[in-house]
Amino acid sequence: MHQTYTTRREASNSFARNRNTVRHTKKSLGSISQIVIVSMLTLVFGLIYVAEGTKATSFDYEISNVESEITEMNAKKDDLAVEKARLNSVAAAKNSTVAAAMEDATVTGYAD
User: Would you say the pTM of this structure is higher than 0.70?
Assistant: First the structure.
């Protein structure tokens, strides 16, 4: 490693009495440390990607469930509309003057 000596005071580059000198060495990561850091970052980003993907899938399932409930409710609404129309027509037939003037049906006999 390359060592350099510098003074704390920038006035002079020479070594003199009462001049504090500091030895600086370059610090760098080794190749194994760099590989470990890159692999850890890749793992973390991969986990974040997978977590976000599963969130999207769970939202898709929730949307699908809500849409199926909406379809069921619309089918029930249509069935109730038909039932309402039937009951209204029966009530209208009972309250009409034409229906009140009719006689009850009776079986008088069978034709041979």
Answer: no
